[in-house]
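Worked example 3 (structure in, sequence out).
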């Protein structure tokens, strides 16, 4: 898109028109125009993806993919077979001595073709009978009464006028 903008700038098209034609913000078009004026077409060339580089080598990434294929139990997580982003970040730290955040581990998993999973959080010991008793005995007290039926006002701050229509106010009879 920046190269299209450069072509338009060379044709003396104004930045606001470039923004309209390329469907970008006017601010972006003016920034591109400034870059183009200062450095020509080369200044608008892409510099590649932004963000920090991967801290694992391609060889380490292949090893990580193999570790993930083995499953969590092979690496000490025996309670379930779920690769969470937190576990993958821990695995990376253990195996490669590199620190990754949970969000960074998530992006890395996606890059390798895996998706992090969130384990179901269940109460280990739930007493269904106690829950039913609580709902019947306590919930009605906690819940409280609903809104009473009756006249309501559309305004949250001004109650319904007892006088009725504004026709009975001062100056109402003047014609």
């Amino acid at each position: 898109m920046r190269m299209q903008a450069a072509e338009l700038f060379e044709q003396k098209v104004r930045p606001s028109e470039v923004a309209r034609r390329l469907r970008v913000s006017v601010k972006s078009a003016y920034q591109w125009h400034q870059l183009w004026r200062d450095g020509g077409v080369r200044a608008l060339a892409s510099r590649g993806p932004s963000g920090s580089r991967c801290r694992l080598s391609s060889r380490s990434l292949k090893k990580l993919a193999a570790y993930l294929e083995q499953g969590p139990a092979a690496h000490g997580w025996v309670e379930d077979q779920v690769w969470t982003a937190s576990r993958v970040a821990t695995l990376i730290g253990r195996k490669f001595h590199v620190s990754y955040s949970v969000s960074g581990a998530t992006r890395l998993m996606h890059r390798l073709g895996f998706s992090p999973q969130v384990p179901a959080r269940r109460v280990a010991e739930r007493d269904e009978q106690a829950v039913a008793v609580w709902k019947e005995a306590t919930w009605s007290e906690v819940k409280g009464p609903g809104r009473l039926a009756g006249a309501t006002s559309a305004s949250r701050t001004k109650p319904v006028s007892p006088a009725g229509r504004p026709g009975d106010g001062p100056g109402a009879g003047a014609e």
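Notes: The chain has eight helices and no strands. The mean pLDDT is 84.
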